[in-house]
Amino acid sequence: MARILVIDDEYVVRHTVARILTRDGHEVQEVEDGRHALQVHREWQADLILTDVVMPECDGLELIRNIRAEDPNVRIIAMSGGGQIGPTLYLDLARKFGANSVLQKPVGRQAVLDAVAAQVDGE
Questions:
Q1: Domain count, the chain
Q2: What is the span of the domain harbouring residue 69?
Q3: pLDDT tens digits, one per residue of 48-106
Q4: Element (H, E) at 5
Q5: 23 CB-near residues (< 8 Å, 6+ apart)
Q6: Distance (Å, whole) CA 86 – CA 123
Q7: What are the backbone angles phi and psi of residue 88, rounded to the nearest 5°?
Q8: Could you tell me the CATH number of the domain that includes residue 7?
């Protein structure tokens, strides 16, 4: 199973995704913002990162760019409900910044498991 870092400023989303992944056998850490996530990844070295795109402080796009600069091999899944402009633009940008895959919120249990399996098994 994989070491997965889940980043989302919304506690309910972050905790729900983390719980889904933990029950699936993964080792999971939860972080509430991109700035803190970068520090946790440096110390913990996740195999896979699931990150929200729209967050305060350091958003997901900036996080993806920073992670890619330091660790080009880590797998990244970006998630977005779109904020004020809709998810499509944010998720397209996330791919351009280096996300391997994207999920549109709200995400269901099976969508999370399928996206994670595709990244973990696809290595």
A1: 1
A2: 3-121
A3: 999 999 998 889 999 999 999 999 999 999 999 876 666 688 899 999 999 999 999 99
A4: strand 3-7
A5: none
A6: 30
A7: -60, -50
A8: 3.40.50.2300
